[in-house]
Design a protein that fits this description.
Structural class: mainly alpha
CATH architecture of the largest domain: Orthogonal Bundle
Order of helices and strands: EEEHHHHHHHHHHEEEHHHHH
Largest sheet: 3 strands, antiparallel
Strand content: 5-15%
Number of strands: 6
CATH topology of the largest domain: hpI Integrase, Chain A
Strand order of the largest sheet: 1-2-3
């Protein structure tokens, strides 16, 4: 939404442009159209130009600069209105639920346990957004149950039923429960009440929560495998750069970011091993918690297809395809991790051992490779 300067090439008398206003708001749309980006455009009358900072003697470049200034002001105004609306909604939310979560105690809790952990807060930036998200989810749980924190331990089943209805992942559930227990301990101490934390679900309750999460229809599922045979069939429809990018993920089992980083000379190296085979060393930017020397993973060149992959890396002709391109050619279940997903079974079919494949993929344990990347419906003799 904003002002736009349209050039009028057929107009002989100045100004050879006009001022228009473009709006994407649903309230401004006159009729529906099939366009994915519906908008409405109307001309600004010349009697309003001076109030907006335009005049007939301006060059088209000056008028476009003025339109950018007006659009920047509109954006700042919209941001301020959005911030005020969010703060008002948050204040109204706290006011309605002041009996369960007193606003003074909630603000003190945020100040102690949420904002104090943000090391970028003194610079005016908030980095720990996930902590804020978990705290908001914990608040919703407390307000939905409306049970005193001192009684939570005796109503653990009701709390588990709440999570069952939300169909949350076990990891997210544990994070919310940990934050809620922290709030329960805080408010109980303020009110001089005893508090027992709600234990993490185990046994039957844990399995029940896992089952409902996996049955959720819109859950984000892991990528399906991309095999060399399927990639070869689609090679005629893909452009060369996209095909080469996918080829590297299939035959080296690299993560998408690792393939993109191969354009930099300092993120990969080729060395000769003691047996005379060449080894591709790839730097893993994902492993930020390890020292620099431990982030390199070795991938031995064992097959002719991998030799071709080295030539692709050397010439640099590879580009990450769009997700919709992958879905178009390989189906809705395959994502950018499709090649890496099929790498384990591909190497097992070539006679390689699982412990070696785990090292080539950069995993810290064989269990990680077996649990997440081995197709349990496929066996290799």
């Amino acid at each position: 939404m904003g002002y736009y300067i349209r050039f009028l090439p057929r107009k002989k008398r100045p100004p050879v442009w006009k001022v228009q206003f473009v709006s994407y708001k649903r309230d401004d749309l006159v009729e529906k159209s099939d366009s994915p980006t519906q908008r409405r455009t109307w001309d600004i009358a010349k009697d309003r130009w001076r109030a907006l900072g335009f005049h007939s003697g301006m060059e088209i470049s000056d008028s476009r600069m003025r339109s950018r200034q007006l659009n920047a002001q509109l954006m700042l105004k919209r941001q301020e209105e959005q911030i005020r609306s969010v703060e008002k909604a948050r204040h109204d939310f706290q006011t309605r639920n002041d009996a369960v979560m007193p606003i003074e105690f909630a603000e003190e809790f945020e100040r102690r346990f949420i904002r104090s952990r943000d090391h970028e807060l003194p610079r005016g930036r908030q980095r720990i957004r996930r902590l804020r998200t978990i705290w908001n989810a914990a608040q919703k749980m407390v307000l939905a149950l409306r049970i005193e924190p001192a009684e939570w331990f005796y109503h653990s089943d009701e709390i588990y039923d709440y999570f069952y209805g939300r169909r949350l992942s076990l990891y997210y559930l544990h994070a919310i429960l940990k934050m809620a227990n922290l709030w329960g301990f805080f408010i109980s101490r303020k009110l001089a009440r005893p508090f027992l934390p709600v234990p993490a679900p185990r046994g039957y309750e844990r399995q029940r929560l896992l089952d409902t999460f996996y049955l959720k229809a819109n859950r984000k599922r892991p990528s399906g495998p991309l095999t060399p045979q399927v990639l070869t069939i689609a090679s005629k429809k893909l452009n060369r750069a996209n095909f080469n990018w996918l080829y590297l993920t299939v035959w080296f089992g690299l993560r998408p970011q690792e393939v993109d980083n191969l354009r930099r000379k300092d993120t990969w190296a080729i060395e000769a091993s003691g047996s005379g085979r060449r080894v591709l060393h790839v730097f893993q930017t994902k492993l930020a918690a390890l020292p620099l020397e431990d982030r390199w993973k070795p991938i031995p060149i064992l097959h002719s297809e991998q030799e071709f992959g080295l030539r692709i890396i050397a010439n640099g002709i590879f580009k990450r395809p769009l997700l919709k391109t992958i879905r178009k050619h390989f189906g809705p279940k395959v994502s950018l991790y499709g090649g890496r997903k099929g790498f384990t079974d591909l190497m097992l079919s070539k006679g390689n051992r699982l412990e070696n494949i785990s090292i080539w993929m950069g995993h810290s344990s064989i269990d990680r490779t077996w649990r997440s990347y081995k197709n349990k419906r496929t066996f290799h003799l």
